[in-house]
Fold:
Amino acid sequence: MSHSPVLIIGAGPAGLTAAYELAKLGLRSIVLEADGQVGGLARTVNYQGYRFDIGGHRFFSKVPLINALWQEILGEDFLVRPRLSRIHYGGHFFDYPLKTLNALAGLGPLEALLVGLSYTKAKLLPAKEETNFAQWVSNRFGSRLYQIFFKTYTEKVWGIPCTEISADWAVQRIRNLSLSEALRNALFGAQQAKDGRVITTLIDSFHYPRYGPGMMWERCEELLAGRGAATLRGVRIERMRHRHGRVERICGRTAVGAPVEYEGEHFISTMPLRDLIHTLEPAPPAEVVQAANRLRYRDYLTVVLIVKRAVVFPDNWIYIHSPEVKMGRVQNYKNWSPDMVPDPSRTSLGLEYFLWEQDEEWCWPQQRLIELGIQECARIGLIDPGEVEDGTVVRMRKAYPVYDQHYSHSVTTVRHYLESLANLQTIGRNGLHRYNNQDHSMLTGVYAARNIVGERYDVWSVNTEMEYHEEGRTVERGAGDRLVPGQLARPGTEMSPSPDEIIATVLAKLDPVALGVAVGVVSGIGLFLLTAVLLLKGGPEIGPNLSLLRYYLPEFEVTWTGAFVGLIEAGVGGFTLGYLGACLRNWGIAAYAALVRRRAEAKARRDLLDKV
Amino acid sequence: MVKEYHETDEVSRVVVRIQAGVLALVGALIGGIGLFVMTAWLLIKGGPQVGAHLQLLGQYFIGYSVTWKGSLVGLFYGALTGGSAGWAVGTVYNWIVGIRQG
Structure:
């Protein structure tokens, strides 16, 4: 194996995790970060001692490996924080996740009635076609609730009408609880993963670094430095030279414009796919470039206001659905961690605007954006404009890869081309053009590092095999952890069946045909024997009582002919009973499973907005 | 042919195999105790002609009658018959399932 360092482009969660994993594997790496700060989207920005988080990063993962990594890097500085969030709409604050009574009380009696009617209509007469997000949500919540609680915010975030967002996207984001997991929860009480771990949810609490998410990555950078892995900030990669199916070197410029060049054996990129394609020399075929150019990104802008008030509102964040303001969400950073503000008598608010780079507001000067933020906060009653003593603006380009109608085909084209470069791996949210959470991005970093030492993980599979990863089945190969030898059962002892094995047994189906035949054979032969015994015993009047069965079995009588008639008729009757019995039992089990699934899905939909 | 889809296919595609011995035991318990209780019930109720119809089982179960002694005989025969029927259903069911699954 070569001793040249692995070159990693981007010091976000994916890139730094890759470097961290490589260091654990005994390999050196150099991480090249275009920005002056590490952490990517998960950085913490510090303004006059006020720290803020770009987007609000709750640290939560169902992947044990990632949870262990976070604890390993931060230790005691990894806090458990309570979660409180609400929705602002029409001058009211609504609890989120939605609570029926609170929502109905806030909406008022007339609107509540209309919501109830539209919900009933959705349940009784759901739209048959469910191809877009609007139809998907309306079928589950009713069109009225969709209009109030989902439409505006989703459209603010993504900048496209909900009718143009694929329903598949909702299914991918929401369907995180499989029937298997739902049944485990229903049958065994607490939310349990396959390996028996108790699954917590993001609804009530989450982990958070004391000084914001960037603390995790700054600490990671320090740990890497201690292990000989350098993180170079301010290095922007401009060209990636390749030959004979391998990347040979990358060239760029430092923050002061000095050219730099790095050669390596292995390269990992977290750059947006669109940018990466444009850095390649020689340039890829025209169709690949065109596909890359079709990839779109949603940009993100935060206006931070420093408010002269100790408590502005109790929430971590508030979703702003009200269409009269442009901001989509308001973060209250001191509620994420009290250490995010230097002065407890002050509050820092982050007003989040989801924009396209081409939008007029994107180019507005800082002061104008701050004024917009103050005006909008005052309009919805959060603050008094006179309370704001300072403010700043942070812009994040390409914060969200857009899932439009073309993205899937474009990503496939780009991916196939990049796979021709044997020593280049792309990872992370923008490196895969996938709306990954931080933990999934980190997992791609772990996989990429392990691939360099000869393992064969598919980084593109992360967060596509949704249940596989989210269920925490990651103690198995392919999901992020090493295989460990299993313990042999000792003689005389039995391995306890796993919950899934129990579920598989409980839900096993009876074979209706087999049960029908079995009951039919036993019934037919049984009646034949009953008849034959009486005939063999003989007597003046043979079987007057048994012959009463003719009322149910036509042509049956206690004669040898009747015995055969009874054999056939009781056989058919027995078959029918056995068949129907098995069907009924199977339908009963299926109905129970469907009920459990529906309840679990309803529970999972409670935090739908968090997933938008 | 369109394969039938069950809600539960996602977590279990197993077809039940019946433990014939267990089904025989269940059948024996139901048959034996059932006939004992039916006989005892008629005896406790009493009357001029106790269990005229149940008595007819004596045609098959030698020694059975609607008496306390007969109820114990019935316990034995009921268990034997129920056990045999249960075992036969379990065995035939498993045999058919084996054939159908190839």
The two ends of chain A are 44 Å apart (CA to CA). Confidence is low (pLDDT under 50) at residues 195-201, 465-493 of chain A.
